[in-house]
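Notes to self after the Tuesday call (sharing in case useful).
The group wants a holo model before anyone commits to mutagenesis around the pocket. I volunteered. Ligand is MTE. Logging inputs and output together so the record is complete.
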Amino acid sequence: MTHRKLARLHAYNGWNLLFLVLSGVILFVPQLRGALAPVRTPLKYLHIGSGILSLGLLALYLPLAREHWGRMRQRVGQKANVVLLTGLLLGWGLTGVLLWFNRYMPAGVAESALVWHDLLTWFAVPWAAAHAVTRYFRLRVLPVVAPVQEDRRVLLAGVLSAAGFLLWGRLGRGLGVPGLEGASEAGDRTPNRLEPLPEGAAFNPVPVSDPPQGGGGKGRFRMYSVVAPLPTFDARTWQFTVQGLVDRPLTLSWEAFQALNRTVQVSNFHCVTGWSVYSVTWEGVRLSHLLDLAGVKPGARYVKFYSGDGAYTDALPLEVARAEDVMLPYIMDGRPLPTPLGGPVRLIVPQMYAYKSVKWVQAIELLDRNHEGYWEVRGYPNDAWVRKEG
Ligand SMILES: Nc1nc2c(c(=O)[nH]1)N[C@H]1C(S)=C(S)[C@@H](COP(=O)(O)O)O[C@H]1N2
Ligand SMILES: [Mo]
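Result:
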């Protein structure tokens, strides 16, 4: 009886784990953000639900564990699998719950939870694959296996899994999968290695600070874009416009934009998915300065931002838009803002989650009503205030 129960639990757990890993990887891969944007939020909740289910299955296993353990006797490999899986599920569960509620956690806690959640996944994927393959052969092809042989097989699975883990790390890095880099560098807060501006980009040279400002951000940006390939711009045709409820609509060339009063700030950057970059030095134009130049009409209550990628928008209430630290930087850590991170010019709203910080921003519009941004209409909270720092 127990045996059948165990077999059923094992099957449910296997399928559930497959869904967890697939949905988790889909949520993680930056290149899928645009294509899967409409289902991102529902998928996240399915993933959370599936995670809760896996903890439920673990709870159902507990009363059977003692008998199961006794039955395994000398099969060290099997025992190791059980311990490993239990550890994985508990680790995923704990970090998953922290991530689920990351908006109420200090940023450092959310960040570690994210790094560990990812690391456990990169370990589990090759292990589960190796386990599934060896188990398939054991059940179908080699029905009678002496425990010793079986242990060898499990050992092989372990070795394969470790090899896969390392290989994936290499591959992931090669493919520029950002989480892996973030994970391996979360401990040492080295300055960002900046990518140079793309060949032929006519935005060089930006008159960077002399001497360069800032000691370098701590942490790593995960490069996000909802469009692919990334947009490109040319300094000769690039324009920044201020329109809507203003006295003097503005159209600024790249030269004119750089001629605006420049300010510097050091601030932290938080993504709502849990990662952060600390102490980034941003240099550029204060949004309130631009608003004053254009002259905001009395009826205006919101500022809408348009990205030059043609897809991404967001908006801020006018009071927020006028805050000291809301700015349009084009220099980051003393160097021209790299194109993947929103260069030549992006928006920065340090006190809100970074989905408000529109990249490649090229136009702003003063409105008398709110505009729901790209991610807000796709399920991100309208309240983007960061509650906790640390
Ligand atoms: N145009 C545009 N701006 C954007 C996004 C985007 O996909 N496109 N992603 C937002 C989100 S969710 C985050 S966390 C930050 C990420 O900034 P980064 O790509 O420089 O790391 O940009 C924000 N601004
Ligand atoms: Mo984000």
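Two things stood out.
The mean pLDDT is 85.
Residues 271-273, 354-355 surround molybdenum atom (ligand 2) (CB under 6 Å).
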